[in-house]
Each structure stands twice: as C-alpha cells, then as structure tokens.
Design goal:
It contains 9 helices and no strands. By secondary structure, the protein is mainly alpha-helical. The longest helix is centred in the first third of the chain and has 24 residues.
Length: 189
C-alpha cells in the first residue's frame, strides 16, 4: 500500500480504538507508519481523512450488518423476523460498539461536513428501503410505503443505539422490542 492507503487504514484503526473526537493526526500517522506531513499532502486535513475513514467504516459495517441480519427463515412472520433481526442488531452493538459511538460523535458536526452528511443520508435512505423490503416484502417501486416503514425502523434503531451506548444493561432486548410492537398493535385494534 502507499501512504494514502496506509493513512486511511490507520485512521480506521484509530476510529475503532479511540473514536472520532479523540483521534489526533499524530495517532493516525503512528498507526499508519507515515509522517504527519503525509496527512496534509494526501488529505489536506485530519478531519477530511477521518471523515473518509468513517464513511468507509460505516459502508463496510452496513454491508456486514445486512449480511448478518438476512432472515434465516423467510417464511417467518413479520414479528418473528423482527425479533431475529433485532437479536442480530444488538449483537452487532456488542461487537462493533466503537463504530456506533464514532458515528454518533460526528452527528453534531454533520452540517459542517457535507460529504459525510451526504454519505450518511444516502446510507440511512438505503437502510430504510432494506428494512421495508426485508421485514414486509415491500415493493421497492412503492417508494412512499417503503420510506414510511423503513423510517420507523431506522428511527427505532437510532434510539436503541443511543440507549445501548449509554446504558446497555437497561436498553431493550430484541424480545422487549417485539413485545412492545405486539402491545402497540393490540392497542390499535
């Protein structure tokens, strides 16, 4: 690999080890085995390098999560699929906590980082359609329904991530989430 690729890989390692806000240019250069000047030469700023690393990490992570959450039993009912998928999501929180934490660190800065904002917006939108198709078999051509259903699941995921990062012992389990949906459904009849 060249310095540019080494820096990107070093930045990714730092995101996992130190998070977004605590990673310095020196940390990245050390992890990459390059000079500090290489960051400026290849990426202009440490922030630009970290943003690129986070975008790539989130993309890789999204692919990994989608593969892990593919339903084992496509004939299962929606709530059964929901609970099985949430078991996978919650397991991913344990395995990839640093990725979730790093993504939340940058959210407060999103308005200043146009490329990261667009990448996250595109990823969230893609995930909305994935939730709708996977849990409900929603036709991708029915964009309105897919967006509404997917937005619900995406909002739920964002909230559960925050709860899990703050207090994993009291955050909801997959079974808790499925039970809550059953209760909500029962009260709307």
């Amino acid at each position: 690999m060249g310095n540019r690729e080494d820096l990107l890989e070093g930045a990714k390692r730092c995101l996992y080890e130190k998070g977004y806000a605590r990673t310095t240019a020196r940390d990245i250069a050390t992890a990459a085995g390059t000079s500090l000047a290489a960051i400026g030469y290849h990426y202009k700023t440490t922030e630009a390098l970290l943003n690129q690393a986070l975008i790539e990490v989130m993309g890789d992570f999204g692919d990994k999560l989608a593969a892990a959450l593919s339903p084992d039993n496509p004939d299962a009912g929606t709530l059964e699929k929901f609970e099985a998928m949430w078991t996978g999501v919650l397991n991913s929180f344990k395995e990839d906590r640093a990725v979730y934490a790093a993504s939340l660190e940058i959210f407060g800065q999103m308005d200043r980082v146009a490329e990261a904002k667009q990448a996250f917006a595109d990823g969230i939108d893609e995930t909305r359609f994935w939730w709708a198709k996977t849990l409900h078999g929603t036709d991708p051509g029915d964009e309105k329904t897919a967006r509404i259903l997917g937005s619900f699941y995406q909002a739920l995921m964002s909230g559960v991530i925050v709860q899990w990062l703050i207090d994993p012992e009291r955050a909801p389990s997959a079974q808790d989430l499925a039970t809550a949906l059953r209760l909500v459904g029962a009260q709307t009849r």
